UniProtKB/TrEMBL annotation:
It comes from Digitaria exilis. This is Uncharacterized protein. SUPFAM superfamilies: HAD-like. GO terms for molecular function: metal ion binding; phosphatase activity. The keyword Magnesium applies.
Amino acid sequence: MAPSPPAQQAPGVVVVFDFDRTIIDWDSDNWVITKLGATDAFHRLRPTMRWNPLMDRMMGEVHARGKTAEDIRECLRSAPLDVHVVSAIKTAAALGCDLKVVSDANTFFIETVLAHHGVLGCFSEIKTNPASVDVDGRLRISPFHDSATAPHGCSLCPENMCKGKIIEKIQAIAGAEKQHFIYIGDGKGDYCPSLKLGEGDYVMPKENYPLWNLICSNKQLLKAEIHPWNSGEELEKTLLKLVNKVISPPAQVSPVDCSKCESVTTELGHHQALRVPH
Ligand SMILES: [Mg+2]
Ligand SMILES: [Zn+2]
C-alpha cells in the first residue's frame, strides 16, 4: 500500500529567509563580537579585510581571549527572537511550505539560534558559510563559494556568496514543477536573489532597509510581487497571507504541528557539518 501523504501540504511553496535582521532583528556577527569583547579588534581590522575572512579572524580573536565555542553558543542563546517570527516559521512549516535559510552568517550561529528557539527542524536547508570547531576549540568560518577555485562571477554580490546563484540552484532542482517562491530579506545581498524570482513569486523586503531601497530604485526590474514589512508581527501577517493565497485549496493550520522540527538536514558541501545539540 502506498504511504499516505502528510496531512498538511502546500505543494510548491518555497519560503526563503535571510537570517540577520530578518529572522533575527539583530546581526549575529555584531552580537557575538560586541558581547564577547572583540569590538576594538573588529574596528582595527575592518578597513583591511573583507567581511567573511574578517569573521573567521574575529573568532580567532575571541578564542585568544579564552572564549570557547560553548561561550559563543551561550552568547547567541542570550539574544532575543521575536515571538511572531517563531510563530510565522512554525505555521508556514505546519502548512507544508518548504522553508530554507539563505544567509551570509554561518552554520554555527544560525543552527544555535534556531535550535534554541525550537525551530531548527522547520527548515529543510540552511545555505550559509560553513563553520566548524577546530582541534583547539576555535570556531572556523569558511566562505560558501571559494573564490580561488570556483568564483561565482556575480558583480552584485560579495565574493564569498551569491545568493542569486543559490536561488537559481533551488529553482533548477524544482525543475518543471511550478514552485512559488517567497523570499524574505533586508540586505544588499538579498537584491540579487530577488532579481531571480519570476511571475507568481513574492519578495518581502524589510521596509527602509537596503533591499527595500534597491528595489524602490527601479521596481520594473523585479518580476516578483513586492510585499514590504517592518516588524516581526508584520512579517508573520504578510507571510501567512501570501502562503494562504498561494496554496489551493486553502489548508487549515494545525496548532503548532512542528513534528518536522525534530531533525534538520544541513547541506554543507565538502565542509564538515556541525551539529547543534538541542
Ligand atoms: Mg540580513
Ligand atoms: Zn549575485
